[in-house]
Structure formats: C-alpha cells, structure tokens
Amino acid sequence: MKVFRSTSSSFCFYVLFALAYFIIGKLLTNFAFQSQVIPIWIPAGIALVGCFIWWWRFIPALFIASVAFNLSIGDSPIGENALIGNTLNEVLLIGCGAVLQGITGAAILRYWLGHPLYLKTRLAIIYFIAVVGIAVSLISANIGVFALSAFNPAYSMVNHWQNVTYWWLGDALGVLITTPALLALLQPKFKQHYVTPLPTVFVCFVLFISVASTTKLYNQESKSNALQIAKREAQVIENSLFRYLNRSQIAVQSLASQMQASPNLSQQEFHNYAAELLAQHTFIKALSWNIKVPQARVDDLRKDLAEIYQTDVKVKGEPLASDDPLVVVKYIAPLEENRSALGLNVFSNPARRATLLDPNIKYQPVGTQIINLVQTKEPAPAYLLFSPVYQQGTQDDPIKGYATGVFLVRNIIDQAINDEQSNMFNIALFEDQADTPFYLGNKNTTVIGDDFTTIKISFSGQVWHLQLAIKDEFIPHQANHLTLFLLILQVVVSTLILLVLLLFNHQHIALSRLVTERTRSLVRAKKQSDLANQAKSRFLANMSHEIRTPLNAVIGFSTLAKKDDDAKTLNGYLQKINLASKSLLSLINDVLDISKIESQKLTLELSPFDLNNLLDRINTMFEQSAHNKKINWTMNNQLPTNIWFEGDAMRIEQILLNLCSNAIKFTAEGEVSVSALAKQVDDTRMQITIIIKDSGIGIEPADQRKLFDAFTQADNSTSRRFGGTGLGLAIAKELSLLMAGDITLSSAKGEGSTFTFTVLLNTCAPIEKPQKTQKKVDLSTLRILVAEDNQVNQLVIKAMLSALKITPIIVENGELAVAKVQEHDFDLVLMDCQMPIMDGYQATSLIRKIKTAEQLPIIALTADVMPEDKAHALAIGFNQHLAKPLELDKLTECLTNYVDVYEP
C-alpha cells in the first residue's frame, strides 16, 4: 500500500513501529490485573497496521519486537503477574503467534475488506470489527497461552481458558482502538476523499484513557473489597477458634465433674465416660485421671495400679522437691496407645509442675505450653489442660487429683477454619514471645505479606498469636468473574463506539457513492414492486376463478332446480350443488391452512395410526380417477405390515392427497406410481419415504424454484389448462417441514415429475380399535334451543333438526336465549357466537352462572375456525365447537353424543 512519499520515510516509520511495539508493551504491563491479565494490548493494533502497510516485509520487525519484549520483561516482578513468556521456546512461539495474527488480519483487509476507514458498505464495517478486530485476535491468544502452559513450569493452569479469554479480549481492544487511530494518521495519498484525522484519533484516545482509568479504579476497588471480606473472615476465624478452644476446656471440666461426682470411679467406668468424650471431639488425643498422693504413699499407689492393670506398673518421675506430692497418671484413655504413660509423675516435669501450681487453676482449667507429640506418625503440636478434682470433707489438701486432656492443635484448626478460609489466608500460630510458629497452615510457605492481621488468643493461662496473611491469589480469585465482565463490557462499549465512528466516516466519504446506489436501489425497488403487484393480480385472478367456478355451479343448478319438478333431475342438481359447495369449502380451508402456517399457529397431533391403512385409502381414492383418465395407476407399498406409527395421520394424508391429485391432474397419458419405503433408523424410529412419480407435463428448472411458494404455479398464464390456487404444494411443503420432514422434486419439461416425501416417525405396536356398534338413538325427545340471528341459517338449522324429528325453539340473539333458558328446561343449546344485542360468548357466560356444563350443554355454531377461536369458546363455557357451514352428519353425531350422556 502506497502511504509514504519516499523509501526513507517508509523505512523510518517501519523502525518506529517496531520500537513502538516494544516500548508501549512495556508501559502497558503496569496496567496488568492481578490475574495475569493486561486489559488492553495496543501492540496488537500496531502489528496489524504494520502488516497492512508493509505486508510481509513487516514480519521480521514484528517478530523481533515481540521476542525482545517478552525476554526483557520475563525477569522483572511484573512477569509473575502478566501473561508473558520468559524462556526462549516461549517467546519464540509467542512471537510466531503475534506474526500470524497480524499477517492474517492484514490479509483480510488487503484482499477482502479494504482500508478500514474507506469501507464501502456498513456490512464491511461490521466484518472488520467482528472478524479482524475480534475473531482474528483469537490466534495470538491461543498460541500464546499454549506456549505458557507448554514451556513455563511456573504457569498456573487454573482458569486456563479464562486466561485465553483475557488475552483475546485484550488483543481485541488493542486492535479496535489502535488501528483506526494509526490509519487516520497514515492515510493513502491516492484517496480522493480524505478523512479528517482529529475526530478519529480523539475518539480512540478517549477510549484508551477510559479503559486504562477504568482498569486502574477497578483494581483498587476490587482490592479494597477483597480486604474487607478478609477482615470479616478473620473475625469469623477468631470466633470459631475461641469456640473450639472453649470446647476443649469444657471437655476437661466435664471429666473433672464426673470424677468429682464419683469418688470411687473404677477404671472401666472412667474408660466408658472418656470414650464418649473422645467420640464427641476428634481433636482430643487422650484423657487421663492423675491422682495426687504424698511421697509416703507411693508404695500403696503402686500396689493399687498393679491390682487394677494386673501387672507391675512403675511410678516414673522423681519429685523435684522433697516435700512435693506426686501427681501420677492412674487412668488414661485410649489405653493401648498410651499405656506407657501409666504411672507417670506429672509433677516431675518443671513446666507441668508450674502449670499445676498456677493459682488460676481453682477457677478454670489451666493449659501447658505447646508440646510436640511423638506418638503420632509426624510430630504434632498439642497442649495439655488440667482441671482439679477436690476431696470432700478434707481441709489439709483439698485437691484429690487432676482431670487431664491432651488436645491436637491441627485438628482444632481444621475444624475451626473451613476450606474457603484456608484458601484465603496463610495461617500461622505462635506462642507468646516466640519467633517460630508451632503451626503452619501450609508447610511450603512462610507467613510474609503486606496485608495481614495478628489475633491475640488468651485461654487457660496461655497466650497465642494467630497470624493471618492474605494469599496472593485470593484477590484475583475474588474478582475473577467481575474481571471478565469488565473486559467484555469494555470490548462491547469500544466496539459500539468504533462502529459509530466508522459509520460516520462511511457516511462522510461515501455520500456520492450512496446517491448512485440509492438510484439503483430505487430502480430495483420499483421492479420488485411491479413484480409484487403482478403476483397480487395473478393471485386475485386465480382466486376469483377458483371461487367463481363452484359458485357458478351452485347458482346455475339452483336456478335450474326452480324450473324443474322431476325428482330424479332435482336430486342430480342437489348432488352437484353439494359437490360444488364442498369444493368451495376445501378452497377456504386451504387459505386457512396457509394462514395458520404463516402465523405459526398450526399444531400437529401425535397419535398412533396405521400407515398401511392410510395408503390403502389413497389407493382406493385415486385408482378410479386414473382409470377414468386412461392412465396406469400403481401402488408399491413396501412398508412393514406389523408396525404402526405415531404422528398426525390427517396431515400426512393431506400431503399425499395433494401430491397424488396433482400427479393425476398433470398427467394426460402414461402412468402415475406411488412407492412407499421404510428404513430403520433405531429401535423406535423409521425413515418413511413416499415417492409419487408421474409421466406428465414436467416442470421447467426455473419454475421448480418457486413451485413451493404460496399462490404460485408453474404456469401463471391466463390460458392455463389445469386451474388451482397454487396453495396445495405450499401447504404440503410446510406441513412436511413441521413434521421435521421434507418434500423434494425432480422433474424435466415433458418427461414427468417425481415428488419425494420423507418423514421420520416413531414406531409403535398395532392398536386394536374397538368395534363401534351402531345403535338407534331417538333424537326426537331432545328439547333444543337455537340462538341464530341470520334467517337463512335459522331455516337451515331448523330443516336439519326437522330431518332428525326435532322441533327446536329459535331466538334471534343471546339476550333472548338467556331469558328462554331461565323460563324453560332444555336438553341442549345451539348458540351462534356473533349476534346483535348480545353475542353468544356473553350469553354463554351468563347461562353458566345458573347452569353448569353438565346440566345444560351449549354447542358453539360459528364460522370462526382458527385454533384460538376454538380455545376461547371452550374457555367461555361452551361444551363443543361446530364450524359453519354445518353438515347434517356432523350435527347428528354431536347430538347423539349428548343423548348418550344425558338421556334418562
């Protein structure tokens, strides 16, 4: 791309771009999140613009700049927190990722979209943002994080894919913000329309400042919030630790109380009670009863111990003073692992002697300093608690002995501090005036940190210091989801602002081009409008023809019937009128079906049916029609005979009726064949394929593309021979798609057509349908109220009911119907829904207040046949819905049902 006037200026900018990549990259590491994230990577935009201007020639400079940056930053403290590399293999692979990303984005711009500031269409602007700015940025992110995970042992694999996302979003922000600004400053000289650089550079600069400042404030706020959480958790830890330490005191006091209450407690009784305490508190290592005896009675004590344990138990530990008594372990639990402690003189240890002589022991249990138990697999820190037991009625030495407990510090800490708190803090416990902790939560770490708190814990005469230091990973972990949300929000906002900016430039630059395009679009729009008007006119003409044809038969034969008295002739006229009426109704039903499909209100039933029986009906219906036209009709049914299917049998039959009738309609000679095949998909499903092949007129390839469009036929001329509205195939196609199937066409002009209907159906076992027994029902006893405002409809309904020997009462509106129901008892009401004064819906609502659906059935008679109309009628209180035009057999069936239910 020709941007610079001379080779020397081009070279200077070439070097400047490479240096800018390196220097700006180092500056941006100061904005790194705690979670290894640099939120905006300006060098990604520099790399893209460099490759766009100098193409492959910029690859060496970009690669060297990337490698140099990563090597230079790897040994600095920031290298531990930012997503960068510090080994040769890492930086080489990261450099390759930066080059591949830059060259890919530049190739898309150079060979597809063009200069980002001079994009010709709005869609190209969206492609630039979505593909170059966002999608291509995935390249460096995936390669870079892979390099870190493969070659850097210190890299944490925790949240690996989140780190890929962070890198990707940072690169995307860098590309979106930097690319327009640099290209606005370095515009090609051959462009006729010059984009003023200041607005573009200013907007990009404001975006950069916004992202940087938002990141800085977010870092401070998230750190502050994390510290507040840490302080609250520290208080929780303090309270919890005090609670568990108090439990250790309570356990020793409980044992002392038991010894006080039972002066002659046996070893077995002691063991049983101690076992209960050990079961309740897992942090208790051992419990013992230490009896206090003067030196003169040591022999008596030795004999007592020998009698208890049936072995010689030595009293160990010499008194530290000549007048010191002995405090000897008499009972201990658990016994086996602590048998060596039997007979031990606790008073012989200076530290424990000092503890027992502590005056505070009179008021509360007194503890020893931390000891390391050697009985465990690893030395474990523990402490002892002593609680005195007093002799009753003795003034000389009231203390009889001491209930003693050994408590494991680590077990207490593990129960007092949960996992979340352990993940939050490095924990250490110190004794008072001690520099070395006796407990470390993590043996591999030292408690060093800027943010920590020390809690003083005083209990049982001992002072501990609990030191809590916030772990390095706690703050980023606490803000992890918010960090991702912030980056996504920044990308979205920057994308929208950049979109507005580029659209503004596009409008400014492409004004003259837009006028031309508008002119062309007006011409195209006029042509499309003319085509739409023509299609509308053809449809109206077709519909007019198709409606007038059956109407002509109805009117014609009605007129002829007036002039003829012959019963046979009149019967023939009536049959033809009936056929024409049904043809007109079928046409209206087709229009309703296509309306339901287009409004997405057509629902399919799912019920078992016999597909073989359905094909037999199709064969019966069309075999005679084909014979009348002197064409061959064949049905090749290869479906299994012992399997039924689940689906909408009526709609499948509707599809096949349409395809077969079309095949016979458009075939003048030759044959029409129907083949049915089944392919097992799995244990419960079969792929059904039904092929309808004819040798008719065939269809031109150009007409096949629009054949399944509504109101469209292959032949739209006024002299067409076959008639039809063009709705049948459109309905069949949509029905097949609703069933997750399809209809395909293979045809050639003059060679016939092959329609293939495929559908995937669930299989089921054949169902035995009960035989319906015909029984004569006397309908003449029914007392029926008819509410109908149209006089012609009144005559029709009255005549139909008279044919059933029923004499109805007829009223003209809903108000009169309600009055009649209140005056008389009726068995059933036939209610028109649309009437003056009060319609059928209002009337039914009023009637339902005085009579339930079981007491008085109300049947809706209406021309409203949409699904929502039927649902509304049933919700109002109608028992059933009969659609107009009303047929006698359907009316009879309806009335018969209610006689069966309600006749006495």
User: How many H/I helices?
Assistant: 26
Mean pLDDT: 81
Termini separation (Å)? 97 Å
Q: Quick one: overall form?
A: flat
Rg over alpha carbons: 48 Å
Main pleated sheet: 7 strands, mixed
Weakly predicted, low-confidence segments: 75-85, 446-451
Per DSSP, what share of the residues sits in E-state strands of 2 or more residues? 15-25%
How many E strands? 22
> Helical content, roughly?
40-55%
Structural class: alpha+beta
Characterize the structure shown:
The structure is a single chain. The protein is α+β, with helices and mostly antiparallel strands. Helix content is 52%, strand content 16%. The strands form four sheets. Strands 11, 12, 13, 14, 15, 16 and 17 form a seven-stranded mixed sheet that branches. Strands 1, 2, 3, 4, 5 and 6 form a six-stranded antiparallel sheet that branches. Strand 4 and strand 5 (380-390) form a beta hairpin. Helix 1 (7-28) packs parallel to helix 3, helix 2 packs across helix 4 and helix 7 (160-185) runs parallel beside helix 15. It is flat, with a radius of gyration of 48 Å. The chain starts with 6 loop residues before the first helix and ends with a helix. Mean pLDDT is 81; it is low at 75-85 and 446-451.
